[in-house]
Queue: 3 jobs
Job 1
Amino acid sequence: MVKDNRKDTIKSINKRHISKDLGVLGEHKALLSDDELHVTYLPNDPRRQRNMTNKWDEFDYYNRDEDHFFIYIVKSDLTYHIKAGEKADDVDQFLKRKGLNKKQQKD
């Protein structure tokens, strides 16, 4: 009985961590337009691909860590991660123009 319970527990944990809806763990592409942020998770896997879009007025703030941006929607408990590479300063200015405030992470 203990062995069966252990198998069920492991299976349950794996199911939560390897869900098809957890595209954030895989490759993703972000498109920042004047109206919205559109993210495609797992763009190279049509069966598992997921798309999310939010208007800029839904976002609350963002954090920047070198060329990585974390954009937050507090009420939805949602965070987008964007790696901007050499365009990081352009993305930073774009987000400020969209009315988002930059918050520094506390150590």
Job 2
Amino acid sequence: MARSEARMRAGAVGDGVFKVVLGAAFALGAAWLDGPLGAPSWLLVAAGVALLAGGGVELRYVRHRPLPVYLRLMITYDGGWALATLAALVVAWRGGTAGGEVWVAYQAVAPLVFAALLASAAPVRSAVS
């Protein structure tokens, strides 16, 4: 049981680190990414800051929140990411120009919601012997 718990915690840490790295890439590369992603630089910077903050909160609470809370939030976040990606692709396939904005906007909002829900979750109960 402890081994699978350690793997799940490692997954939560990996998820937080990925968000921090992606956030830094969005924030630092906004001027370069705005063309390929079809989103304005300010939205990429906002998404970068949100991802940095969300990933930081995720890393901060990794030992202080129950793993089931993390797993539910990560599954919900990733499901939303998949839906936002699908919506962005459909917009692009139909010739629209807002696909990148839809996808990046999700990146700007979802990490903050994730972080707020994680921060408001009940802390891990310590076992008393």
Job 3
Amino acid sequence: MVFDLKTVYLDKLLFKEFNLTEDKIKSSHFYDTDLEQDKEFYEITSFSDFFTKPGTGTVLVKEIQLGTMLTEVLILISFDEESGIVEINFSESELIEDNRLDKEKCLKLLEYFLSLMEHYDLKSVRFGYEPAVDDDTCLIELKPDVTQIKDLVDRL
């Protein structure tokens, strides 16, 4: 999944929506350009402030609730002062049950991100294989005017 986000929303997204805490994080890496040193997730009190300077960081989460529980999720955060990109990567097996796509899990995931779109001024959320930003690897693009997300899941 990949979406653009304004920097001012980053703390709220990471701490309130994704509920990221030190105990849920398997590993992380951020580089502080001012101090010229690596930082861990727990060492940064405000990501909105941290990313007022261009930078990138990664967080590997043990498990995260995104409408449905996902495990071993890699969150890539790449920001440039006012806005940036949040990319969320996980194994496709997270959405497979009995060798079939679990459409209920997919639906819950899409509903969750449709709700986030309303609260975080997201223009779209792209779901697909990496890189989901490319049209040929994007399976679904959620936009604010999408109302029939069940139809999108049924086409998968």
